[in-house]
């Protein structure tokens, strides 16, 4: 993929990507494999890319698995394959029910995973909510589906007819999740009226408590993300399909690496 490009140049390319780039974590895994033969440089490279994308849970998952592995290159390529093969979107699309007349699916945090879920669900009327931490227009310009999605504000009356409220998470801990800033306000306004509220995760989003806490503590006051209690969600949508929050958060496949628990600077 990279030809004669050096590992350092690959890493710089990854750090320049937008945090909402759906392939960021997979691209990082591919780039970090180039540092596998130099353990000290690999640690520095992981910390450098995390410093640029502090809220990206799947990126922390990638770096943790690589640094904890006996064979970092093999771990990097395995992580890349698992991210590329993530079936969360497909399983989410199959789980969304048929709606009654006038009902809508409401999304906070329109991601590639949500777009994949809608690829073949032309029967659903979908609303993407504009909040402080997420402007859906950028994601909608990159989408693969032809599904009509209407962008609305949190006070729009149409949201009173929400059958399923989907909230995308960038990182999920044992008791709380990191979601776009403004999601809590949307839940306060329409969460009680929605039939169910689902948290949308994916490969690499569920993290150990210490790693999740490190992510939260590394964010600045101007962060585009906020925390929300897992108790506010009826289900979590992930690679295995829909699960109860307690079951989803128990499926942690990321180690805790001491080198990543120091402040990123």
Question: Can I get a quick summary?
Answer:
The protein is α/β, with parallel strands linked by helices and about 260 residues long.
Please give a structural write-up.
- The mean pLDDT is 93.
- The longest helix has 14 residues, at 39-52.
- Helix 7 (112-118) links the parallel strand 1 (104-108) and strand 2 (126-130).
- The radius of gyration is 18 Å and the shape is globular.
- The chain is α/β, with parallel strands linked by helices and 265 residues long.
- It has helices spanning 7-15, 24-32, 39-52, 57-68, 72-84, 88-95, 112-118, 136-142, 183-191, 209-218, 245-249, and strands at 104-108, 126-130, 149-153, 162-168, 171-172, 176-180, 196-200, 225-229, 235-238, 241-243.
Q: Nearest-angstrom radius of gyration? A: 18 Å
What is the CATH third-level topology name of the largest domain? Answer: Rossmann fold
Kindly name the structural category: alpha/beta
Instruction: Determine the fraction of residues in helical runs and give it as a percent range.
Output: 25-40%
The residue-averaged pLDDT reads: 93
Spans of 5+ residues with little confidence (pLDDT < 50)? none
Features:
17% strand; 2 domains; three-stranded antiparallel beta sheet; 11 helices; alpha/beta; seven-stranded mixed beta sheet; single chain; 265 residues; Rossmann fold
